[in-house]
Amino acid sequence: MRRRGVPALATTLSLGIAFLSIASADEAGSPASSDPASRQRVEPGNETLTDVRTNVRTDVRPEILPDTADGDLKNACAERLAITIQAYYDAVDDFAASFLQKTRSVTLGNASLGSDAPSSGTVQFAKPGKMRWRYETPSVSQVISDGRILWIYDAEAQEAQRLPVADGYLTGAALEFLIGDGKILEEFDVEVTSCEPDAQDTLELKLLPKQAASFESLGLRAKRQTGEILGTSLIDLFGNETRISFSDTRINLHPDASTFVFEAPKGVSVIDLIPAP
Q: Whole-model pTM?
């Protein structure tokens, strides 16, 4: 029996943390916060950034801060980006996208472990704490959670693992986000290497967990003005880096609850890792 399921799970869960946390944090908020149309469009050249859902305002414009900005200005830039990302996903009930995943392994001694073959597929998230990753290449597998039970299905191995999503069973603080808790600035210290957006008008936000976690850091590549996330990255405790880029993103599709329920196909071996009562 192969053992690639649990490591793959740790990476997939960690890369989903940011989405599940920021998309769930405002679930009990005001009606206005659930309407993406309530966002105020911010045109280039505006002197401030304002979000009508959170009533957040700042006089810090990330695009005018140079790479040599002092610590205070960079901190303000990072916090502003975190707030913008949080505000965007507070108005999103669910989203779906195609993804491309690339992993770069650390060197072991003098031998480079190289990079794994890229993986691709589709992913869906929904509040609270629901997700479904469908890996289509180079092999077929899925990671599914309804917020209570998590399944790892390896089609090639004809094996499915069933795990609880509760009590920090696998990854401690990571799973707290799957059950709908947490906000970026409460759970992470944030940093930016540059406040100058790239050609796609995106900035990179580095998230460092304030509490012990199963990863070293998370990264978000987000649109500067809207906060929409175009990619994520994860550096695990061994220094391995996994990057996922998203395309064809769609929001508020209201998928049926059955999307996040898994039933093992006939002939598949089920390994139940839920502790006995």
A: 0.73
Q: Which two tokens stand for residue 58?
A: 């700042």
Which tokens go with 261?
A: 């329920």
Helix, strand, coil share of the chain (percent; to 5):
25, 35, 40
For residues 124 and 251, give the distance between their C-alpha atoms in angstroms, rounded to a whole number. Answer: 10
Is omega for the bond preceding 36 within 30 degrees of 0, making it cis?
Answer: no
126's enclosing H/E stretch is strand 119-126
Amino acid making up residue 262: F
Cis, bond preceding 209 (omega within 30 deg of 0): no
Domains for the chain: give ranges and CATH numbers.
5-27+47-272 (2.50.20.10)
- pLDDT single digits (tens) 1-45: 444 443 344 455 555 544 555 555 545 444 333 343 443 443 434
Which residue shows structure tokens 């008008």?
A: 201
Distance CA 23, CA 80 (A): 17
